[in-house]
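Task card 7
Instruction: Convert sequence to structure tokens.
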Amino acid sequence: MMALNRCMSCDCDHNDGCTPCYCKHSVSNRKQLEEQSNHEYNPREDPMPKKWLSKPPDVCELCNDDITDSFIDGATTYGPWACMCVDCHDQYGRGLGLGKGQQYDFDGKTWWLVGGSK
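Output:
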């Protein structure tokens, strides 16, 4: 039987409920990288790095300031989620992590997930 949701990065068939973006192989690879090194997780060294796949936000959805190098896609103290600048996240965000928010930094070409991934 052919798998309908095959992960292009790790080639698993996701029968255990994982998704291509957050499958168990990606998590174990990230943990291996952290164990092998004495520094924090660096997405550029990950065999399956996480990056923003949609059109990146041009402005903060809370204050309308330009977003140029970092933003957080996260829950706000008001309830709804927003793509917000770091300053607005400091004031209105609910933190980083699963169910709270993820931080993305721009390296000049790609928006990389740098916070809230664990």
